[in-house]
Known about the structure:
alpha+beta, 7 strands
Amino acid sequence: MSSKKTEAPRKIAADNRRARFDYEIGEVFEAGIALTGTEVKSLRTGKATIGESYAAQKSGEMWLYNAYIPEYLEANRFNHETRRPRKLLLHKRQISKLGHAVEREGMTVVPLKIYFNDRGRAKVEIAIARGRKSHDKREALKEKSWERDKARLMRDRG
């Protein structure tokens, strides 16, 4: 018998696919997120977007700004605000590391995805990232295209 843990497939609620193209991704962190009940229910429907959102440090805490979680239709008057700042739950050391990267090195903290872990808790995958210039983006596209062509050639060969 193998004692390896098999990772259960995580339910991804929102994915920021554009971030990997627009930024050079550095270190990745997993953070909890403080949500209200209707936000969690709305996230489970999978209609949230984090394409233009970012995380920033404010008074020793990390906050997720501009993440869109749509209103939960069945909640009527007890609904949440769709684009409110949401607190990210991280250790102090992680917060200071992210804060230093933003202040000193001119990097950004970008959310990559929001998902539910195996215990049903909503988590955010955030990363320290550096913005790419347009010529770097073109280079990344060429590289991606070549990788795709190379895989196709290898598959056709047998």
